[in-house]
Amino acid sequence: MNFLRKVSEAFGRYMAAIVVVVTLLALFVPQSSTWIKTTWINPLLMIVMFGMGLTLDFNDFKLVFTQPKYILLGCLAQFIIMPALAYGLSLAFALDVALMAGVVLVGTCPGGTSSNVITYLSKGDVALSVGMTSVNTLLAPFLTPAITYLLLNTTIKVDIVAMFMSIVQVVIVPIVLGFIINKLFTKLTRSLVDVLPAVSVTAICLIVACVVSHNAARILSTGWLVFVVVFLHNMLGYLCGFILGKVLGLSVARTKAISIEVGMQNSGLATSLAGSTFPDLAMATVPGALFSVWHNISGALLASVYRRWNND
């Protein structure tokens, strides 16, 4: 078990580098990853969400009831700022319909679970980060389809019922199952938590490799433009969260948590939804895949900066 724990720690520590290597290999040697079928994306994401559920307990939701204003602030920022940025950047860069759909999906998805790890590394308020991620994820079946429809319905047909069901199946059900198993078999799950980073990183790498390898030619032809949009979306999200925290006079630790939560999206979910909601728009999956790569790099870089910013 100690060996597995050390391996898992290494996976977590070097996640950004691992994802980058996998991406480059899938992009320039696509045949190395085309064996990963697109139908695997949902099951792989369900594994990641199940792992998140295994780490949750009732204490993670305590902040929702003791300090609801901070959770509400994080939710409003997540589901207002990021969709608005995604839509605005798509228009500013005149993205085609498929890429716009993918970018907007990234913007309307909840925060990613890796935001909790980055907040921890940044010496931010981890309890607040976990609370915001958990609540945002539970709200996603309702808000993600609704906001996506609001932004895209005049351009693309958006089936909000199908999107709702997809999020429930891929996100909510695995998290709830993981949560229940954690409560029933606490000792067992505590022993498994140490190896979850390796499982999650492997699943994320397979998702990224699948999407990138199957769309390698398209990415190489238009990838620079999408990457610029993804880069700006992510960095502006961090900045808006930071400014919001400072304007409202939040503590340094809470400002860090909100900045990171707003800037980091559940890109795996965005990729999954793009494939199931817009099956005729192959390029819609690309922004989510690129974001999976970039936010691990940017998160690691941001953590190295935030760690030097002493808390109040």
Kindly state the percentage of residues in helix.
over 70%
Distance between the termini: 38 Å
**Count of beta strands:** 0
Class of secondary structure makeup:
mainly alpha
Largest sheet: none
- Gross morphology is globular
The stretches of 5 or more residues where confidence is low (pLDDT under 50) are none
What is the helix tally? 15
Question: How much β-strand is present in the residues?
Answer: under 5%
Radius of gyration, whole Å: 18 Å
Describe the structure.
By secondary structure, this protein is mainly α. The chain contains 15 helices and no strands. α1 (2-13) crosses α11, α8 (126-152) runs parallel beside α13 (252-263) and α14 (267-277) packs antiparallel against α15. The radius of gyration is 18 Å and the shape is globular. 51% of the residues are buried. The model has no long low-confidence stretch (mean pLDDT 85).
